[in-house]
């Protein structure tokens, strides 16, 4: 149905980024479209999403000619998810409470990983 949005912009961005992360080379909008299941967004919608992702610094444009453009991710999936977590934390009314609630959900393996990351950051002198 024309004019009805089947996915949110954030969901489209996530699907486009997933396609780029899974690719072993830069992709054009048409190649990205082939990774979608129904409902398949319009070609122009994918171009708009790619433009927004470029503005956010998440993808870079590779112009092969004026009409042939490909895109590749500028950040990894892990970096993107870390950005999302930091953004959520910054939006929390109770930052301390949010951190404590998050820590309460971590597995033993995750806690060991975090301890190691915190120790490494301290050695590097990171503190902010």
TrEMBL record:
Belongs to the BlaI transcriptional regulatory family. One of its GO terms (molecular function) is ligase activity. It comes from the Bacteria. Signal peptide: none annotated. Keywords: DNA-binding, Ligase, Transcription, Transcription regulation. This is 2'-5' RNA ligase. The lineage of its organism: Bacteria, Bacillati, Actinomycetota, Actinomycetes, Micrococcales. InterPro entries: BlaI_family, WH-like_DNA-bd_sf, WH_DNA-bd_sf. GO terms for biological process: negative regulation of DNA-templated transcription. It holds the Pfam family Penicillinase_R.
């Amino acid at each position: 149905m024309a004019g009805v949005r089947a996915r949110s912009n954030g969901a489209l961005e996530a699907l486009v980024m997933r396609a780029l992360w899974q690719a072993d080379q830069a992709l054009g909008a048409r190649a990205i479209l082939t990774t979608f299941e129904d409902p398949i967004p319009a070609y122009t919608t994918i171009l708009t999403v790619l433009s927004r992702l470029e503005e956010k610094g998440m993808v870079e444009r590779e112009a092969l000619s004026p009409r042939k453009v490909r895109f590749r991710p500028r950040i990894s999936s892990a970096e993107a998810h870390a950005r999302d977590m930091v953004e959520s934390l910054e939006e929390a009314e109770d930052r301390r409470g949010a951190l404590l609630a998050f820590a309460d959900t971590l597995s033993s393996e995750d806690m060991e990983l975090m301890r190691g990351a915190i120790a490494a950051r301290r050695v590097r002198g990171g503190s902010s």
